[in-house]
Amino acid sequence: MKRTKPLEIDEEPAAAEVLRAVEEARARLRRDPEEHAAAVALIDALEALIDHEEAHGTAEGALAAAEERAAVARDDVARAPDDPPRLRRLAVCVRCLGDVRRTLSDQDGALTTHEEGLALARRALALEPEGTAGAWLVSVSLNRIGMVLESREDADDALYAAWSESLAILRGLAEREPERTEWLEALVTDLSNVAWIYECREDPASKALAESMLEERVTLGRRLAELEPDEPEWLRDLVVSLDDLGDLHRYRGAWDQACAAHQGALQVGRRLVARAPGERRWLDTLSVSASKLGHAQRARRDLDAALETFREGLRCERALVDHDADGPASLARFCGYLEDVADEFIGRREYDRALEIFEETLPDRRDLAAREPVDPELRSELEDHLRQIAWLQRRRDEEARERAAEDEIERIERIEGDLPPDPDA
User: Fold this and answer.
1) Cβ(191)–Cβ(167) under 8 Å?
2) Predicted pLDDT of residue 150
3) Over the stretch 254-266, which tens digit does the pLDDT of each residue have?
4) Under 8 Å CB-to-CB from 334, ≥6 apart: which residues?
5) Is-contact 277 305, C-beta < 8 A?
6) Which alpha helices (H) appear in 253-350, and where do they start and end?
7) Nearest one of 331, 392, 343, 402 to 367, comparing CA atoms
């Protein structure tokens, strides 16, 4: 966040409107402190203020609004402590306060706040054990606790407990309402979280569970895409799920399975790009999948396939280079991927193939050097690139001369073999 002071009421029109709504709601509650509807109105107005403050980088304003919102909700619950909707509203307000504290890097404060929110959510669920709203709120609170614990190296057991319980709750919700995308989306996230915990363990049973969960995640991703075929975010999530499954296999050295998963991700990524060819997010998504698949193919020694895959990613990066601050670096990285394949061809003495690749990336290397003409590293990389092309041209010519000489020797030997025997021999 860039700014640290709260917005003043005349600072900008949007801020003035949000603050005016808050002042009106405060005045209404002051007139009748016991009015439940007035408390709800102020809670809602403060939520809009938090959103506005966070969007404009006002850290102190967001924190102050979140603290006030939680205090109003606490007072409202105090008037009806066994009312599940009020308890759930307070749990949401407390969770929001925890989120703001986490954004401010107050991890201890965030954890304490999210634990309070979880306790409130459990109280609400105990009062309405058959309702889905309470169970959903407990799951979300557990996830928030997991997000804080994830940054702590000594909290593995607590992290596993939080995410595992959340996963169990979401499985139950998905069974009750199998077509509710809200449950399915959260279940996809929890499956990923718990799967990677299992993958970090050494026993075979945990490894098998990790793989099973990531496969289930892919199945749910396909289900989401079927339920809402016009929603591109589900397709993007499916790409990520398939690539994560591919990553798991890559880490294990299971290259065939890795290639299959990453190939599936690439195919879905192509569908995204086909829907909106100029959309930078989808080009970036496709580029990531191409990188993962290309490396898996190269590790499997399928150089031709890896080369074509890296070329597809390179085309994406060429389209993105002028639209992203990291565009030049990403373009250079993909040039390097192709050139790594060229090095493999050099190892096979296939100098023509290697030269073709280095000449293919030469315009990109020149473009990158021209973008930063005073950067000595880029100039040096271009010079090395040109030297490599010159060396490959010499090797190609030498190989051609060697082959021509060998062909001539073979022809001479064939002619000698066809001559009649020497009578003087």
Assistant:
1) yes
2) 86
3) 999 999 999 999 9
4) 287, 291, 310, 313, 314, 317
5) no
6) 255-275, 280-299, 303-320, 327-347
7) 331
pLDDT at 420: 66
- For residue 300, what are the contacts with CB-CB under 8 A and spacing of at least 6? 255, 256, 259
Q: How many other C-beta atoms are found inside a 10 Å radius of the C-beta of residue 170?
A: 26
pLDDT surpassing 70 at residue 358: yes
State the Cα–Cα distance between residues 290 and 310, nearest whole angstrom.
6
Helix boundaries (H) for 200-254: 204-227, 232-252
CB–CB of 46/22 below 8 Å? yes
Task: Tell me: pLDDT of 9 over 50.
Answer: no
Residue 152: count of CB within 10 angstroms of its CB: 12
In this structure, are residues 142 and 150 in contact, taking their beta carbons and an 8 Å threshold?
Answer: no
pLDDT digits (tens, 9 = 90+) for 36-73: 999 999 999 999 999 999 888 678 889 999 999 999 99
Q: Yes or no: say if 75 and 113 are a contact pair by the CB < 8 Å rule.
A: no
341/299 Cα distance (integer angstroms): 11
Alpha-carbon distance of 287 to 311, in angstroms, equals 10
Average pLDDT, the chain: 91
Compute the average pLDDT of residues 85-102: 97
Q: What angle do CA 344, 347, 352 make, to 5 degrees?
A: 80
- Rounded distance between C-alpha atoms, residue 329 and residue 256, angstroms: 30
Q: Which residues face 58 on adjacent strands?
A: 3
Which CB contacts under 8 angstroms, 24+ apart, belong to 114-121? 114/141, 114/144, 114/145, 114/148, 115/145, 117/91, 117/92, 117/141, 117/144, 118/91, 118/142, 118/145, 120/87, 120/88, 120/90, 120/91, 120/94, 121/87, 121/88, 121/91
List CB contacts of 291: < 8 A, sequence separation 6 or more.
Answer: 310, 313, 334, 337
What is the average pLDDT across 203-226? 95
- Rounded to whole angstroms, the Cα distance separating 100 from 61 reads 10
DSSP secondary structure of 336-355: HHHHHHHHHHHHTT-HHHHH
Q: If phi over 0 gives left and psi between -120 and 50 gives alpha, with beta otherwise, what is residue 65?
A: alpha
- Is the alpha carbon torsion for 70, 74, 77, 79 positive or negative? negative
pLDDT number for residue 35: 96
Q: Can you tell me the distance from the alpha carbon of 134 to that of 119, in angstroms, rounded to the nearest whole number?
A: 11
pLDDT of residue 3: 36
